[in-house]
Design a protein that fits this description.
The complex is a heterodimer. By secondary structure, chain A is mainly β. In chain A, strand 6 and strand 7 form a beta hairpin. Chain A is globular, with a radius of gyration of 13 Å. Chain B has no helices and eleven strands. In chain B, the strands form two sheets. In chain B, strands 2, 4, 5, 6, 9, 10 and 11 form a seven-stranded mixed β-sheet that branches. In chain B, strands 1-3-8-7 form a four-stranded antiparallel β-sheet, with no helix packed on it. The mean pLDDT of chain B is 92. The chains are: A mainly beta, B mainly beta. At the A-B interface, strand 5, strand 9 and strand 10 of A face strand 10 of B.
């Protein structure tokens, strides 16, 4: 079966750095997405990786290793507004998104 | 602003009621999706419409009935629901289905079935 694993919850301190990991086993691979979802709001797109390596976008970076079935989302200079759930999703060979259950990130002052 | 709106935002219904969820996208996309999001579970894809044609129905019970009159509007008709159907129902759109296009989500309808 297809499976996406990510930690259920993480806690970090304002101003620090946090890395949210995602491992996957899917039928085919057409890219990996990260979304941010604040409580009661829509998931919003953060990043898309299809090739190995690091993609940097401001305070957020996303890394992919296809051979290891692994990705991480790196958040730098954490702000209180970064408290949210972070969803990892892989697009399989049928172009369907397979979703992880999300990682709830709690930022403390 | 994601350009995808959903109404109502909250809905409470009894098991014998009939109600409809509405989604509208203002992004000029051609694919629209219904997802179910339950607490601490991955998003579950329910239906996909591509150019108004249904292309996916992921074994969804018949008490959920989708309708896509045009590329901008998507409905989910609900009848004889069960308490376990209580969840957040998210609508999304993308440029086209069957491609690696980013999906953009609406804020969801929080459904409670009594």
């Amino acid at each position: 079966g297809q499976n996406i694993d990510q930690p259920t919850e993480m806690t970090a301190t304002e101003g620090a750095i946090v890395q949210i990991n995602c491992t996957y086993q899917t039928s085919g691979f057409n890219g990996l997405f990260w979304y941010q979802q604040h409580a009661g709001e829509a998931p919003t797109f953060l990043s898309y990786n299809v090739l190995d390596g690091l993609e940097e976008k401001g305070r957020f970076s996303s890394f992919l290793s296809r051979s290891k079935g692994y990705s991480y989302l790196l958040l730098k200079e954490l702000q209180m507004k970064d408290s949210a759930s972070y969803l990892c999703a892989v697009m399989d060979s049928n172009y369907q998104l397979i979703w992880g259950a999300g990682t709830k990130l709690i930022i403390k002052p | 602003e994601t350009g995808v709106t959903q109404t109502p935002r909250h809905l409470v219904m009894g098991m014998t009621n009939k109600k409809s969820l509405k989604c509208e996208q203002h992004l000029g996309h051609n694919a629209m999706y219904w997802y179910k999001q339950s607490a601490k579970k991955p998003l579950e894809l329910m239906f996909v419409y591509n150019f108004k044609e249904q292309t996916e129905n992921n074994s969804v019970p018949s008490r959920f009935s989708p309708e896509c009159p045009n590329s901008s509007h998507l409905f989910l008709h609900l009848h004889t629901l069960q308490p376990e159907d209580s969840a957040l129902y998210l609508c999304a759109s993308s440029q086209a289905g069957g491609h690696t296009d980013t999906q953009y989500f609406g804020p969801g309808t929080r459904l409670t079935v009594l």
